[in-house]
Amino acid sequence: xxxxxxxxxxxxxxxYATRTAMHLKRLGHHVTAxxxxxxRGVVAYEGQEDxxxxxxxxxxxxxxxxxxxxxxxxxxxxxxxxxxxGTLGRIVAGTSDNLLIRTADVCLKERRPLVVVPREMPYxxxxxxxxxxxxxxxGIVIPAAPHFYDRPKxxxxxxxxxxxxxxxxxxxxTGADNIVKPWKGIRIPxxxxxxxxxxxxx
Length: 202
Known about the structure:
5 strands; alpha/beta; about 35% helix; 5-stranded parallel sheet
C-alpha cells in the first residue's frame, strides 16, 4: 500500500476527484484529501459527496501541523484535481498559504510526483506560463481532456480516461490494474483506387 495526497480545489469537475479517490482505494492505497473551502462548495454543488467515502484522512487546509506538511512524511505523490488556475499560480509561486499549497511545495522539493489537472478553457498567457513553469520544476500537467477512441458509454467511463493517466503518472497503477484498455493501435484500411471510366472520348 502506498499513500497519496488528493488536493481538491474550486474548479468545476469534482467528479474527477471522486473517481481518482475511488480508484486509489480500489487499488489498496491510502488517500489523504486536502479540500479547499471553494472545493467543498463545488463538491456539494456538483453532487460529488461520495468523494469523502474514499478518503482515509481529511486534514483542515489551515492546519500546517498536519503530517503532509513535512518532507519527512512518507507519501508517494500528490495530485490536485481539479486544479484551479489560482491554485496553480500559488503552487508555482511557492506561497504555501494553505496546507494544499504547502504540500505541493513539499512534493516538488522532495522530488515526488506532483500532478495537476486543470479544468479550464481557453488558457490565457498567465495560465500557459504557470503550466510551463510547473513542468520545469518537475510537476506534471494533465489537462482534464478525456479521449473518445474507446467509445465510452457513460460520463464515468469518459472521466476514467483522464483518471487512468493520473494514476499512471503517480505510479499507482501496475500493468494488471488497467482502468481503461491501453491503446494497441488500429489498422487503417488502405484507400481504394479511384475507378477510371472506360467510356470512349468524344
